Every structure is written in structure tokens, then in C-alpha cells.
Amino acid sequence: MNGALRQVLAEIVAARGTAHLGEIARRAGITRDEAEAIVDYWVERGRLSRDRLGGCPPRGCGGCALADGCSARDGQAQVTAITVRPRAAREPEPGGG
Amino acid sequence: MRDGLPAAAPARLLTPPCCDEGRGREVAGAPTVVLVGNPNVGKSTLFNALTGARQAVGNWPGKTVRVARGTWDAAPGPAVTLIDLPGTYSLEPRSPDEELTRDLLCGAERRPGLVVAVVDAANLARNLYLLAQVLEAGLPVVVALTMADVAASRGLRVDPGRLSAELGVPVVPVVPRRREGVDDLAAAVADALRDPVVPSPPPLGEQAEQAVAALLPACAATPWPPRLLATALLGGGADVPGVPEELRERAARQGELLLASGAADDEYGGVPALLAEGRYAWAHRVLSASAERRGAAPSWSDRADRVLTSRLFGVPAFLLAMWGVFAATTTFVAPVQDLLGRLFDGPLSGSARDLLAALGAPPWLTGLAVDGLIGGVGQLLTFVPLMLVMFVLLTLLEDSGYMARAAFVADRLMRLVGLPGRAFLPIIVGFGCNVPALSATRILGHPGQRLLLGLLMPYVSCTARLTVYVLLATVFFGRAGGTVVFGMYLLSVTLVVTMGLVLRRTLFRDLAQESLLLELPPYRMPSARVVAVRTWQKLSGFLRTAGTVIVGTVAAVWLLAAVPVGVEAEFGQAPVEHSALGAVSDALAPVFEPLGFGDWHAVAALSTGFVAKEAVVATMAQTYGSQEPKDSSRPGTLAPALRDTFEATSGGHPVAAVLAFMVFLLAYTPCMATLAAQWQEIGPRFTLIGLVTQLSVAWLLALAVFRVGRIFL
């Protein structure tokens, strides 16, 4: 079955570049909400990883004079990156039930 | 029980021997109803609304998972024991909470009489996936539809009647906080308990259904719900307890057949994904039939994105927005900045000098206080209006959601020249400050990518360099200053890209590209309060950091300027050209003569700029201030002094020389803190290689700019 689940993953893998979720959803003929749910599915199964971009690094913002007002710091208007995980990094498939 | 499915093994009602905390009391013989749903769908709020104070919370026996249990007077039906199961996204458990939910819902030992599936109307697609599995459990189900108001605010209208028809189970809209719909839910539950109907499970596609059908007879001989067990075993459910090995092997063979037939593909998640595909396809059909999105046309946010993130217009739109910020900043603010500069250079410095003279202060103290602190800090303060306007404009762009699109566009630009996909984030951080940006390179998975970006980061023009650009651009370019500053940022990006290309094609040939999908936040109207607060935070942070650096550097520069070298003079009495500062700067000045700015003032500023770029403007003010006639009536003198210096050192091409100076400032080492951060992130060897490269690139670029520039300027 070549449905939305497979198509969304295939689109991301094949993108070889940057796309945004709205584009992927449009191409797969599903809503953005559905695309988000499908991305969640693949993230849970270790095929994709999701990172919020814009957060300050673990050691803090160093000497950045703009740190206090940095919108990246408080999660406002953040971008989330979804990337294909390399095979070695994937978690084993969980048991079903 | 009416049922279109093979009969499940007899199920015992759930009678948990736990939860001895609180005041929950079960009514003997009361049927058990469980609340199931995704996390954050309002399930616990509904539980509280239904049970009120008659509830207890405690660990489930043998588990560390806390479960709430209570009694619900589900009039007109009987009182029921209500259990709030832990939130889960699916019945494929990934945590002890989810495992307990799975086991309580469909485990062999205890099974409820009815499931109330709490479904969030605002996230219907995600919620329907869990519901698809709940419908496989062979239990009567009632759907409590929450968050309809949130869905409506997002333009999504869910029709409960149509949803009920699609699902084959009752659907009751509820607002737990206001207890709206609670009576209707009680009536639906009473009906379902009185006349239980097991709903049909969602079809999973022809080939998957054949595999399920092949397993159902054997599954029916276990205490588990047969269909759910069949799909779990097909999906590789190794953790389902109490299943005969023979049944597992049969399920594995069915899975292999699905793979062999091409129905399932290991590259795309294998058999579990095939089953999930069926559930999502069913969810899509249910959604299409029962929910309407307001307006058939895309939202204005989507339409804006089609332009602002397009390959054709994305980059030009971003450049236009950035040019607008710098042009507006310098155009509107230049007169105010000039006024403040004159105030600090003239009346304030003069009054302070007169006051100190009247108090009998020694010359060194006057030099430190007036030429150093007032001159340096005063120069910084002249940038306050400029920073204010710029931060307001940038915050507007951030708060509207546009900066997230800019990140998207910038990422595309980076990829265009072969840089790692997500490298754009540290680069964007680097426009604020290179130090945290170097730490942010850790988001890159490949050590080679981190090293590459660590070497490129110093070429990203940080905020500290902006003050120097603005000062020189307004002095030498007047109304075109904004465009020149914008040009410096363009040059910074070009430098990063060019150096990246060079390094990728020499040292980093084996770096693989990665695919990247971005979730962009929707556009929104910026809030005046948020913009005001953020602007203040940025401005005060900048002043605090820059002020600290400047005061320290001013003191150090003053100390160096006070130490006489090559002349007989007391401490603080020698002309600054004959001080340690003047001597070192003079010695270095010939290196910069070919670049058009071989003057000790410029070299001194670049030297303190090596420590921190915030100090460059202050050092200029301080070194020129040291030489000025101590005449309080004289208006602002830094601008004409700068013009005179660059005129003299460039052989009559001051504009070419100042451009070369700005380019050198952009390309050479940002500050000592950046070097220390590089040392930590990429090691001493590459830090030193980077340092030598930066100085070489800066010198060569500045040379090219001056040599070419003096032909035209």
C-alpha cells in the first residue's frame, strides 16, 4: 500500500534539501494535521528525528549580548527540524499490542 | 452483546485492588468504564468532572504507574467504576504508562465493560490513530469529543453526527471544565452498557486483512482480543505476554509473506507500517467525511508562505526585509545619533574636564575619566537609538513568524553551496554572537560538519561588529550608510559560503547531505507588549555586555597609553604616540599601509577589537580624544578626525580605505572569547589554523577592496 504514511517518509528522504511540512502535506494530499501525525509516527519509530531549532546551546548563550531578548530562547516562533536518522542510530521496532 | 466479530474469550470486569489513597469507593458490582486517550486531550479534566470528589489515586499493583479511579453516577444508568488510564498515542507501548493502558484495555486478566475514548477535535488525525486500535479491542466504545472550541478557532468544524456515523459508535461533544455534555455522555454510556455494541474495526487494506484473517482463529483461543492480538503479532509485538510460540511463528510467517509480496517494505517500516498505513488511510476518510476546514482556499499564512519561502522569491524577499531594517535604522536614527555624539564630545566632556580641573584632579585621572570613560561609554550610548529601532524592527519580524521563514530561506541558501543542512541555525545564532554559535554547532551530527562550521563561524558578522559598521558608514557614506551596513552582512554571508565551498572541496569532501523537513510556526500579528518587552531585554542586555567590555578595555587602553616608551616622561605624561600603545600600534601600522589604513589609531582599534569588537569604537574615541585640544566649546570631533586619518593614510582615497578597514574588521578574529570557544569545540590545532586563515583572508580581502576601490572611489 503506497499511502500517506509511506509517501510522507519518501518525500522527506527524497527531498535532499529543505522542505516544509505544508508542502509535504499538499503533495501527499492530506491535511497538515495528518502530516504532523504521520511525522510523529516515524519519529516514534526512530526513522526521523525531531529537534527544535533555535534553542540556546547546552552551556547557555555564552557572552551573547542579545541572549535575554532572544526569541529562540523561549520557544517563540521556533522552527522544528525533522531529519532522517541514519540506520545505525535508529531504535529497534517496539513491540505491538 | 451484539457483535460482528469473532467472539472474544470471556472477559472479567476490571476490579483493581489498588488505589487505596483518597476517598474513592467502588459500588459493589458496578460495571467498569475506562477513559482512554492521547495525552493532553482533557481526559483527566473529564475524569474529575465525572467523579468529583469520589476518586482515589494510587500506583497500580506491581507498577510504578499512578492511576486514578473513582465512582461516576452515570444517571440515568447505574453508577460505574471509572478508571482514568494513562495517556497514550497508540496501543504499541513505549513506556510503562502506555503498557499499563494497553494491558488494562485489552489484557487477559481484567477487562472493562466499556471504553470512553476521549478524542481531541483539534488534533483529530493524531487521535484517530489511537481510536483505530481501540476499535480493534472488541469492546463497546463511546467517544467523548473535546476541544471543539479550539478546533473551531483553527477553522476546523467537526460534525459529531457524521463522525458517529463514520466510526459506528456514539460521539458526544463535551466541555469538561464547564461540565457541558456530561449528562449526554452519561446517557450514551448507560445506553451502551445496557445494549453493548462492539464496533467494526477499521479495515487495514486487502493484503493486511488476509494476514489478520489467517491468524484470527488461533488468536481467539487466547484470552486477548483476537483482532488486536493478530495485528499486534503481525506488527512484531514481542512483548504480548501469554501467547503460544506457535502462534508467534505463524504471525511471523504471515509477516514474511506480506514482505515477499511487496505489500510491506522493510525500507518503509515493514509490516507495522503497513498496518499503520491502513489506520491512517481510515483516519483520512473519517476526517474528510466528518470535519470541514473553514474556507476551501488556503489560509493567508499558507498563501504568504508560497511566496516568501519559494525558490524564486524567498531569498530576494529576505534580502529586501533585511535591507529595509538597516536602511530604516540608519536613515531615521542618524540625526539623533549625531546629536548625541556632539553632546558627549562637546558639552559633556568639556564640563567633566572643567569640573575635574576645578577639583585639582591630576592629568592622568582627567585622561582616564574624560577621554576614556566618557568618550568610550558616550560613544556606546550614541548607539542606543539605533539599537532601539533595529531591535524593534527585528522583534517585529520575529514575533510575526517571518524570521522562521528567513531561517528556511537561509537554510536553502546554505545547501545551495553544499553546506550541511541544519548549519543555518548556528549561523543565525552567530549573527548575534559567535561564542554561543560555536557551542550550537553541536547540533550537527557529523564531527566533520562541526569542525567545518567551527572554522566558518568567525566570518559570521556578530552584533558587536555592527556598531563599528554604523559609525564608519554614517561618517563616510551619509544617507547611504544603511545600504553599506547591509552590504557588510551580505559580504559576511558570501564569505561564509565561499570559505565553506573552499573547505568542502579540499578538507571536507566526504560530508553527506541530509534531508531536512521544517515545521514553521504560523504567521501572527505581533503583540505590542511582547515587542516592547523583547526590545528592552535585547537593548539592556547589549548595553550591559558592551558596557562591561568597554569599561575594561578603556582602562587597559588608558594604562597602555600612560606608559611612556622612548621618551623621558612620567607615567601618564607622555604624548600617546610615545606610549606603549602608540609604540606597538606604530610598529604594526606598516602591515596595514598597503590596505590604506596604516595609522596607529586604526591599528590600536583593531588591536582592542581582537579582544572584543565592542571595544573598537570606544578605542577610537579614546585615542582621538587623547589628542584633541582640551577645548570644551569644540563640537563633536571623532567624525572629522576619522575622515582626516583615512584621507591621509589612503593617499586621497578615504572611502576605499574605510571600506577596506570594515572588510578587515569583518573577516579577522572576532574576539578572544570566540577563540577560546573554538579551542574547546574544534581543538587547538584547528583554532590556530583558523586564526592564521582569518588574518590572512582579512588582509588579502582588505587589500583587494582598497586596491580596486581606489580606482573608483
Automatic annotation (TrEMBL), chain A:
Domain Transcriptional regulator HTH-type FeoC: residue ranges: 9-65
Name of the protein: FeoC like transcriptional regulator
Organism expressing this protein natively: Nonomuraea pusilla
TrEMBL record, chain B:
Keywords: Cell membrane, GTP-binding, Ion transport, Iron, Iron transport, Magnesium, Membrane, Metal-binding, Nucleotide-binding, Transmembrane, Transmembrane helix, Transport
Localization in the cell: Cell inner membrane; Cell membrane
Binding site for Mg(2+): 48-49, 51-52
Pfam family, one: FeoB_C
TM regions (residue ranges): 312-335, 380-397, 423-444, 451-477, 483-503, 542-561, 655-676, 688-708
FeoB-type G domain sequence ranges: 30-195
GO cellular component: plasma membrane
MF GO annotations: ferrous iron transmembrane transporter activity; GTP binding; metal ion binding
Membrane topology: Multi-pass membrane protein
Positions with a binding annotation for GTP: 37-44, 84-87
Superkingdom per UniProt: Bacteria
Protein family according to the UniProt entry: Belongs to the TRAFAC class TrmE-Era-EngA-EngB-Septin-like GTPase superfamily. FeoB GTPase (TC 9.A.8) family.
Record PANTHER family: FE(2+) TRANSPORTER FEOB, FERROUS IRON TRANSPORT PROTEIN B
Function: Probable transporter of a GTP-driven Fe(2+) uptake system.
Name this protein carries in UniProt: Ferrous iron transport protein B
Organism: Nonomuraea pusilla
Lineage, top ranks: Bacteria, Bacillati, Actinomycetota, Actinomycetes, Streptosporangiales
